[in-house]
Amino acid sequence: MTGSDLTFTFRVGALTDKGRVRSHNEDSLTSMPEMGLWAVADGMGGHAAGDVASALIVEELASLGVPVSAQDQRARVLERLDRAHHRIISHAETNGLSAMGATIAILLIHRAELTCIWAGDSRVYLWRDKALTPLTRDHSEVAQMVAAGTMTEAEARVAPRRNVITRAIGIGPEARPETVSGAVRPGDRLLICSDGLTEHLDDADLAHELSLPAPPPDIAARLVAETLARGAHDNVSVIVIDCEALPEPEGEEL
User: Which domains does the chain have, with CATH numbers?
Assistant: First the structure.
């Protein structure tokens, strides 16, 4: 069996919390292992706006159905993000809301093909071979400055405009999510999170937590608990996924 022929089973831990400061939770998350889809949406616009925006995205993703290929899976997700984008705009116009939207980070796995689709500063990370790799790049002002070499990562973490994002679902005339693809391997551990986590935990913190030999629900609980212990200024949402290869089917006896 080649790498591309592998199929996987998943162990998942998913958790969201409103944090220590916010009065309500504008994050929404979904975990659909049977569809090979997991997502975190971080709403913007305040109560009854951000809540609705993130919920609309998750509602659209719930209608995904069973894809026949990784390409089909990506196309279905992008179509649903486009629908959610225009539903959010329509809701804002109907209710007289000036700004309403949500960042999104989606992980897709079809057989051994992995895809990340995102807009904004919610993130996907890969823990593999004792190394942490970010699979997404923030759509934000400070991320652009870091990429241009005019700001360091350390400066970006405390910059006054660090929360100014440049892409989101529901903001602008069209949805503009970014997509990257790769391959998943047995033993991979993946993390999807809203920026409420990465505001308080840096990559070294994440690497330490993801390295622990605990099941995904325990890792998710540890990540949220540590964020709460550090003040949790924002809502925080995490999904932790462990990928295990299914055994190759035995041949039928003649």
Answer: 8-245 (3.60.40.10)
